[in-house]
Each structure stands twice: as C-alpha cells, then as structure tokens.
Design brief:
Layout: E1 4-5, H1 18-27, H2 33-53, E2 60-61, H3 69-76, H4 82-85, H5 91-100, E3 110-112, E4 119-121, H6 136-148, E5 153-157, H7 159-164, H8 174-195, E6 200-203, H9 216-229, E7 235-238, H10 247-251, E8 257-261, H11 268-276, E9 283-289, H12 299-313, E10 318-322, H13 341-344, H14 350-364, H15 372-382, H16 390-398, H17 409-420, H18 437-447, H19 453-474, E11 478-479, H20 491-496, E12 498-501, E13 508-511, E14 514-516, E15 520-526, H21 533-540, E16 546-547, E17 549-552, H22 554-559, H23 569-589, E18 594-598, H24 613-628, E19 636-641, H25 650-655, E20 660-663, H26 675-678, E21 684-687, H27 700-711, H28 732-757
Parallel strand pairs: 1-10, 2-5, 5-6, 6-7, 7-8, 8-9, 9-10, 11-16, 17-18, 18-19, 19-20, 20-21
Antiparallel strand pairs: 3-4, 12-15, 13-14
Helix pairs in contact: 1-2, 6-8, 8-9, 12-14, 18-19, 23-24, 27-28
Bound molecules: ligand LYWDKB7T, 2-amino-4-mercapto-butyric acid and zinc ion.
Ligand LYWDKB7T binds next to helix 18, strand 13 and strand 14.
Length: 758
Amino acid sequence: MTVNTATIGYPRIGRNREWKKAIEAYWKQETTEAELHNQLHELYVNQLRIQKDKGIDFVSVGDFSYYDHMLDTAVMFNIIPARFKKQNLSALDTYYAMARGNKEAEACEMTKWFNTNYHYIVPEFTDVTPALNENRPLAYWQKAKDELALNGKPLLIGPATFILLGKGFKQEEVSSLFAQLTPLYIQVIKELHEAGAEWIQIDEPIFVTNKAEGYWKEVEAFYQRISEEVPGANLIIQTYFEALDNYQSVVNLPVNAFGLDFVHDERKNSEAIKAHGFPKGKKLFAGVIDGRNVWKSNLIEKAALVSELQKLVGKEEVIVQPSSTLLHVPVTVETEQELPADIRAGLSFAEEKLTELELLKDLLKGDSEAVKAHQQEIEAFSKVANRVHTKTRAELEQIDDQALSRASVAERQRLQKEKFDLPLLPTTTIGSLPQTAEVRSKRLKWKQGQLTNEQYEAFIKEETKRWIEVQEEIGIDVLVHGEFERTDMVEFFGERLGGMLTTKNGWVQSYGSRCVRPPVVYGDVYLVEPMTVKEIVYAQSLTEKVVKGMLTGPITILNWSFPRTDISKYESMNQIALAIRKEVKALEEAGVHMIQVDEPALREGLPIRAEKQAAYLNATVEAFRLATTGVEDTTQIHTHMCYSKFDDMIDTISALDADVISIEASRSHGNIISSFEQYSYDKEIGLGIYDIHSPRIPSFEEMTNNLDRALRVLNPAQFWVNPDCGLKTRNEKQVIDALTQMVNVTKKYREKLAAVAQ
Ligand SMILES: CN1c2c(nc(N)[nH]c2=O)NC[C@@H]1CNc1ccc(C(=O)N[C@@H](CCC(=O)N[C@@H](CCC(=O)N[C@@H](CCC(=O)O)C(=O)O)C(=O)O)C(=O)O)cc1
Ligand SMILES: N[C@@H](CCS)C(=O)O
Ligand SMILES: [Zn+2]
C-alpha cells in the first residue's frame, strides 16, 4: 500500500537567485517585459520539474509569483488602489508600482507574513471594485500541463486570509467583502475544475490564528456557496505554521480535504483528530516534514506519526507533505560543499525535503533499508563534538536580577542629556548606508581571494570615511558608520559567533526581490572575539559628533536564523544575549557610549497561539536586558524595530528599557502612533518619518506631516527624527536627497517649536 506525497509551495528564487536577477534587470530597464516573462516562465517550469522528478504526487502550482502572492491575489481580483489605476500603466508596471511605489504614488503597505521573515503587500480595500482581471491559478496550472504534462494542484489564497490580512475597511464591511469576492472565487474555481484540475488548494493560514473567529458565518457561507456552485471540485483547505484551535469548525467546512500542520504545536492537531474524529471519506494532507527549519527529519518517528494518522483517518486518506510551503527554507544543501561534513549531514533544504518525502513513502511501504543512510546522517550530526560550550552555560547560571537592571529612566535621561548635549529633535539614521554594487563586488572579490584582507579593509575604511563626511555635511546629529563591512545584519553576527554557521548560497526570499541567508544555530552560542569594535572606533575617530555602535540583538539574531531543536529557543536566545552583552561592554570600554541593539524581529517571533505569547514576551525582555544592561547609566542604549505590528505590544517595548527606540511608522501610515495616545511612554523615541523601501524622495510637506502627526501624541523633548529603517537598499543620491530633506524639515520644525515657546 503506497502513500501519496504533496507539496504546498516551493522557493521561487532558483538555485542561484535567477528570479531576483531577472526581476531586478527588468526594473533597471535592462530587459523587456517579454524577456522577463520568458525568464520567469523557465524558472517556474524548472521548479515544478524538480518536484515532479522527485516523485511528488500532488505538486502545488501557481505558488510562483513575480513579487508576492498576496499582491498577486489583490491584482487578480482588481483590488488596485485608485492612485495606481489612474496612472494607466501596463498591468505589470501597475503591479510593480503597487509593490514599490513610484514618483506619483506611495507603495502599498508591506508587513510580516505570520511569524516568518517573509513580507507581503497588504491589500488595500478602500474604494475598489472587485472584479476578476485574470484567472492566475488557471494560467499557471495550464503551463504545468502544457510543459510537463503535470496535473498540478492550483493554489489560491482563501478569502478569509486575503480579506482579514488586508486593510481599508471597517469591521462591519467584512461581510460585504466576502459577498463581493465570492462570485469571483467561484468563477476561478469553476474554470479550474472544468479545465481538469484534480485538487485545488485554498490556503487559509489565518485559521491558525484567532482573527477569523468573529467571521465564521461568512467563512461557512463562502465554502457552502462554492460546494453548491462547483459541486465536483475537490478543494483542500490548507492551514500551516501552527495547529488549529478551532479544529472542529474547520473540519466541518464542506470541502473534500484538509491540510494540517503536524510539526508546530507538537501533537495538538493529532490530539484533536483523536478527540473529535475526522470527517469520513475526506483526505488529510498531513504536514509532517518541517517546512520552516533546515534539519533532517527523523523518518522513523515521522513514519510512526503517519501510521497513527492513518489509523485515525483511514489508510487511503492520508497524503504526506511538508508542514508549510518550502518558500522559507533555502533551495538545496548541494551548493554548501564547504560546510563541515558532519554538520552538513544534518541539514535538509527544499530539494532535500522532497527526497525525505520520497524516503518516507518507501519506509511506509515497508522498505526500511531506504532510510538507513539518512538516519545514520542524523546520528552523525547528533555527535558533532563542539555543540556544548560549558563556560557559557556556567556564566548564564550566574546572571541574577541585579545584573539585568539599570538606574531609573529619569536618572539615565538626566545623565545622558548632560553627556550628549543634543539639540531638540535629534536627527539620526538606523545604521546601514547604501550597499552599492561596488561594495558588494569588492566583498565578493575579497571572498574569492582577489583582494587581500588589507585591500578590503582599506576599501571599507574609505567608504566609512566618505559617508561620515556626507552625514556631517548634511547636518545629521548622531552618525552611523554605515555597516559597509556587513553582508546582512544577522548573517554578519552568524559568521562571527561560536555555535553558528553561515551558508554560501542558502538564500531565502525576504521581501520582493530581496533575499537573506539565515545563519544556522547548531550549538551553544558564544562570543569568540569582539565583532564590531574596530569599525565603530575607526568611524568615531573621524568626527566630533557621536557615532552609534551598531549591533543586532539576541531576539532578532535567533528569529532570523534557523534554530537548533535539541534545546529550547529561549536557552539559545539567552546564550546569544550573553555574547551581545560582552560585545556591548567591549564597545563601551573602547569609548563607544551610544549603542544601538536592533530588534526588528521581536514581533515576528511572537507565537501565533495566545497561550504561548506571555512566555515569549517575558523571555524576549529578559534576553534584551541581558544583552544591554551591563553598561554604565551614562551609556545610551538604542533599539530599532520595523515592518511589523508593534502597536499592541508597547508594554513589552517599554519593558526592554532601552533609552531610545526608533520604530518604522511611515510605510504603515502611522498605525503605531495612536497607541501612544493612551500610553504614557517615558523613554525617548523616533517614529520613522519616511519610507526607505521606495526609491521616491518624499516631499518636504510629506515629511513635515509625518513629524507633525507623531508630535501630536509625543513630546518633542523625547522625540528623535529618523527614517523608517536602514538605508542599504537605496542609492547614494536617494539617501543624500532624502536625508537632506529630513534635516531641513527638522530644522524648520525646531524653529516652529522655538517660536511657539516664546
Ligand atoms: C531589515 N530586514 C532584514 C531582514 N532579515 C535580515 N536577515 N536582514 C535584514 O536586513 N528582514 C526584514 C528586513 C528585510 N530587508 C532586507 C533588505 C535588504 C536585503 C538585501 O539587500 N538583500 C540582498 C543580499 C544581501 C547580501 O547578503 N549580500 C551579500 C552577497 C551579495 C551578492 O549577491 N553577491 C553577488 C555578486 C555581487 C556583485 O558582484 O555585484 C554574488 O555573490 O553573486 C554581500 O553583500 O556580500 C539581496 O540582494 O537580496 C534583504 C532584506
Ligand atoms: N541597523 C540595521 C537595522 C535594519 S532593521 C540597518 O540599518 O539596516
Ligand atoms: Zn529596520
């Protein structure tokens, strides 16, 4: 008896990020639209071919995108804001204008996709008329059929997820949005069914949160209508990233299959099946291989889980698959030949996870020989010698409450105001400055041995010096060294910390065409030697103004890495925190007395399930304090957060006890500002006054309005002026123009405040 396998999404970027390169070439007008279509078509077909060749029975099709799948859904249903419609651009350029903004219009908001480091474009439902512009899933399904004779499993974002992750509507308008979208979904599904699609995957990850709870009537009505209007279509409601809290409500929906995650939240979904049963004759797409982490699965244990599910649900009814799309893991371990063999043996990226599904199939057929080598590799990895760092464990034992506290905020503010003597509304930036093609190519040459260490360091110094001068010229008050020596704010630390490793080609899409290579935590983490002191001290030596030390915090380093699974995440987080505490101290001892410890990923790690959130928030506060409280009260600790929803966690942000925080506010149109109306926030804060993801330079009025909006709620004496986030993705001219504007706006504002005070 054989079990079938499935996938529910695959990396779009290709083995060598061909996807990114093709899209960016089109943006730079180096290629035509037709060329872009050809290049992406080839990539799409190739990613399907890999899955087909690995023997996957139900390959999902249409998860591919030219930027982001939520944006695809919005454009497909004509959820296109008027500011883009009226520009009469081609369909493709309208799509990219929504994603990136252009001269005439601000980009749509971008935010985190659940608890991942992937960002989606938020659908804007204000003043739009839903209509079906194109049956996208059908087009992708047809391509798979024509090119590979593959009857794929077309994928749609379900209406609950699509609407409830959108914006621009009131709660009472949700019903009407469901009603307007229902006929469009019906048409898409009908056409897919008539074309011959065997299974249709409707992604409803929102069901693992409590966001759909208040709209269950609408959800039921939607799926009821589909079952009546397209009775023969085989629909799978696909959930992922967590187990369901509302298991019974979901499995009562009138579809033919349910996709559940059996990796996260341990045994919760299987317990629910045991307790409440599974609807007779329906299929269970069982996510048993971890789609979010990079470790090989113990297939003996997975086979036992599948057998248990088969007993509960019926042998024929279970299909095995990854717990989520594989979009969030790198493409293949094959390109990582330089990793230590015993660690590499423990890794499994997207392609290897397909192999694991095949091995699992063999094992379930009774062929235990097939998995022998696989299981031995896991065993080899478990024996990697240096995974325990005794000194770190002993030092963590010694940390007590006193080590985690500083003087009162008021006292620190008094000391720090005296020490730094900054003007009202001090201006600063978030840390990174343009990572130009020149910076990246010099780094590549250095890595390939074409530049010596001395030549590379001299180049980094030159770039730092040039930008210190630029910042002084513009008139910024607190400067940054620019992070030119860093590939990425997490990868840089992953390369240097003990117990972590980085990859050569382990890219994962973060947003749009931008990718990151998340490090892998394979052992106890510890500081080997100071990581940032040399560059900051050099930058500080060039100027009388203060240069901020620039670090990434323990929560973000862990959340943007692949964690180990043999100890708790909180234990790893504290180990990283201890290493950062030592780095902070090293900076302070070297004379750096303003230090930023970035925590943009604080929110993203928040567990989806409410019952686990308090423990997470407590652990993050503890880790951040561990990292930052080892300094004198005169040393000013900054932190920074971006592109997440922070407005409901001001308590936690305040408890971090950072002296200054900068938070992105402009791309999310100031969502966070109102939360400070009710909350008396006593520390210093900068709410971003312009969006750095758009090449467009905001006008003087726009920046002034953003500043004005924040200062209606916050006291100018506690306010800093800064952009939304780091400037690494912008070019030199854009940065200089935008920062000059920001400084001019601030100067005018100071004059206005001085006039009012007189
Ligand atoms: C703040 N953000 C970050 C997130 N996660 C992180 N881990 N880091 C972040 O900063 N999540 C939320 C947001 C997401 N934002 C971004 C912003 C920008 C990028 C980005 O620019 N990514 C780059 C890759 C950066 C990098 O590591 N570059 C390396 C390698 C460069 C490279 O591609 N080399 C080429 C040759 C280059 C040449 O010759 O020109 C090659 O090897 O072929 C480096 O700088 O050395 C991207 O390009 O996508 C990501 C997330
Ligand atoms: N210091 C980092 C923070 C990004 S979230 C940067 O400026 O890129
Ligand atoms: Zn940021």
